[in-house]
Design brief:
- The chain is mostly beta strands.
- About 15% of the residues lie in helices and about 40% in strands.
- It contains 5 helices and 12 strands.
- A hairpin with a 4-residue loop joins strand 1 and strand 2.
- Helix 2 runs antiparallel to helix 3.
């Protein structure tokens, strides 16, 4: 595939290395949010620095990013450095810097997985297959949302802002890249951030907010991502606690075969 025909996600996470631990990237117009870039892409850019690092051992297991400040449009630096490498595990520190300032701080763990006993207690719920769930009727006003095909089974974006309290914030949605793209660890990182803020669903009130911290736990192996291919993922999320200016959510992502690929948590701040 030529650069001109590259998928917008691949263009978005592209990095140029300028040293042993320093890579340079830039924000992507196709993944713009209300203000600044889509946080999922920023997290994926940080993850891509680990994935493309020549010293990487194994595959991602856990990944946490703290959004310290809003990134401006343009170039930024990613500093990804293994802090400790053991026989089968590796621990990483991450920074995204722009204009000499820290914009994102992160940590990660990668590991060489091995065959062991396995089981899943987070079982995929019974839902209609993706093509039986209609697409939204209108194009999203926020550009990054248009980079994903999202088919809401329940708990879609509020159609009316009434400021009440629905009593719950559960969303179930089929999602994949738009246009479709084979799943990998970078795109799975970004897809872990496609869930709109739970307070908007719980209260149907458009309050200012932002993600403070995001953690992704990867349960998938490389072969499971390859088996998923360009298929849909089922995302399920709900809030857990709201108050004193902050709230969180927990989410799960399965492929169409019912394999648990990732679980994720986020904390947001909000204003009133």
């Amino acid at each position: 595939m030529s650069d001109a025909a590259a998928h917008p996600f691949d263009s978005g996470v592209a990095l140029a290395w300028h040293g042993e631990h320093l890579a340079r990237g830039r924000t992507s117009a196709p993944y713009r949010n209300f203000i600044g870039p889509f946080g999922g892409l920023t997290a994926a850019q940080a993850m891509q620095a680990i994935l493309s690092h020549p010293q990487r051992l194994g595959d991602p297991i856990a990944f946490t990013v703290n959004f310290a400040a809003a990134i401006e449009d343009g170039e930024f630096d990613v500093i990804a450095q293994p802090a400790r490498t053991n026989r089968s595990t590796q621990h990483w520190t991450l920074q995204v810097r722009q204009g000499g300032e820290v914009m994102l701080l992160g940590t990660a763990m990668t590991a060489a997985r091995r065959e062991t006993w396995s089981a899943e207690e987070a079982v995929m719920p019974q839902v209609p297959p993706p093509l039986e769930v209609p697409l939204p009727h209108t194009k999203a006003r926020v550009e990054w949302v248009n980079r994903y095909e999202m088919r809401f089974i329940e708990g879609g974006f509020p159609g009316e802002w009434h400021g009440g309290d629905s009593g719950q914030s559960l969303t179930r949605v089929w999602v994949r890249d738009n246009p479709p793209r084979p799943l990998d660890f970078a795109s799975l990182t970004a897809m872990s951030d496609v869930f709109f803020p739970r307070i908007w669903l719980r209260r149907a009130q458009f309050v200012p907010l932002g993600t403070v911290t995001m953690t992704v736990y990867f349960h998938a192996r490389e072969e499971q991502l390859k088996a998923t291919g360009t298929g849909y993922l089922l995302g399920q999320t709900r809030g857990q606690g709201f108050g004193a200016g902050y709230f969180d959510h927990a989410a799960q992502l399965w492929n169409e075969a019912g394999t648990l690929l990732a679980t994720t948590t986020q904390v947001y701040y909000f204003k009133e």
